[in-house]
């Protein structure tokens, strides 16, 4: 029940009406008996919306597109990943101080672990946008031995690789024309582009894939993308994007409440949604 003491959490961005975050966090609050509510706020101006949330005493919030980079500038403190990616998807509010985190990459790797995937391997990452940057930052923090970043726009892949150069991971970058060669050398292939979102087309030709490879897609609508279908056909282990969505929320929830997110139950809710 909402009371006079109910804590406020939320999501800011534009659009926000498709988001599953309110469903996930409100389900988790209810399950754990936490007196809190999570709402979605369509934001035309990130600075104004954040200021309004501070005035209202919000305890924390998520940021989605296009608020992620503006939010990073507006925070008082950033986590290592948020600093690396210059992007924030989770903010913890303490008094009038904002600490920004980027939990997408950590969520991605937690989901791999939950799916029994050992990621101490050669990783091929497709994309250099927000999601890819978050995954790449966490990959170097997790100390993966090798990371190849391929992107349609090569200069963005180069900028991402350069920004992570001080870490021990061996990083290569290039364009999508290098995909066939790079797939051969990869143990884990991650599609972090929007290619295949709502469409039945795969960024990797299934004939290039081998059964010893793991193929992941961050696209979760459709849940089984053309890439994952092709990978299954080639005998690969596949990891879909829905688990990452729940796992990034798990990190945010734990930062806000200090309590463990009921991940299994949330995944069930998402699957039915
Ligand atoms: P997100 O935050 O979801 O990562 P984004 O920052 O807009 O979204 O990034 C989208 C990614 O998908 C980029 O890597 C983009 O490639 P470019 O940097 O060249 O734009 C990639 N992408 C989108 N449409 C694509 C397509 N049709 N073919 C290949 N890559 C595509």
Task: Describe what this molecule looks like in 3D.
The mean pLDDT is 95. This protein has a six-stranded mixed β-sheet with strand order 2-1-3-5-6-4, sandwiched between helices. The chain has a six-stranded parallel β-sheet with strand order 9-8-7-10-11-12, with helices on both faces. It is of the alpha/beta class and 273 residues long. The protein starts with 6 loop residues before the first strand and ends with a helix. The protein has helices at 21-32, 46-55, 68-74, 80-85, 104-114, 130-141, 154-163, 179-185, 226-233, 242-257, 263-272; strands at residues 7-13, 36-42, 60-63, 77-78, 90-94, 97-101, 122-126, 146-150, 170-174, 188-191, 214-217, 237-239. It folds into two domains: 7-102 and 246-272, Rossmann fold (3-Layer(aba) Sandwich); 105-240, Rossmann fold (3-Layer(aba) Sandwich). It is built from eleven helices and twelve strands. Bound molecules: 2'-monophosphoadenosine-5'-diphosphate. Residues 127-132, 151-153, 156, 193-195 line the site of 2'-monophosphoadenosine-5'-diphosphate.
């Amino acid at each position: 029940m909402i009371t006079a003491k109910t804590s406020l959490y939320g999501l800011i961005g534009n659009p926000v009406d498709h988001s599953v975050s309110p469903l996930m966090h409100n389900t988790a609050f209810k399950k754990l008996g936490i007196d809190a509510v999570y709402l979605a706020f369509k934001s035309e101006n990130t600075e104004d919306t954040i200021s309004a949330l501070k005035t209202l005493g919000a305890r924390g919030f998520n940021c989605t597109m296009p608020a992620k980079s503006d939010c990073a500038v507006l925070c008082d403190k950033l986590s290592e990943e948020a600093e690396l990616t210059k992007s924030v998807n989770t903010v913890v509010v303490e008094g009038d101080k904002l600490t920004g985190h980027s939990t997408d990459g950590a969520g991605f790797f937690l989901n791999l672990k939950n799916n029994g995937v050992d990621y101490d391997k050669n990783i091929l990452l497709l994309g250099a946008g927000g999601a890819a940057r978050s995954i790449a930052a966490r990959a170097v923090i997790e100390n993966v031995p090798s990371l190849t970043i391929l992107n349609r726009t090569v200069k963005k892949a180069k900028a991402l690789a350069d920004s992570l150069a001080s870490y021990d991971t061996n990083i290569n970058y290039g364009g999508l024309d290098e995909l066939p060669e790079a797939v051969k050398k990869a143990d884990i292939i991650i599609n972090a582009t929007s290619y295949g979102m709502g469409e039945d087309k795969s960024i990797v030709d299934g004939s290039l894939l081998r059964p010893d490879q793991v193929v992941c897609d961050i696209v979760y609508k459709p849940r089984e993308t053309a890439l994952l279908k092709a990978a299954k056909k080639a005998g690969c282990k596949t990891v879909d994007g829905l688990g990452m969505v729940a796992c990034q929320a798990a990190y945010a929830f734990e930062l806000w409440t200090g309590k463990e997110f009921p991940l299994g139950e949330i995944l069930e809710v998402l699957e039915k949604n």
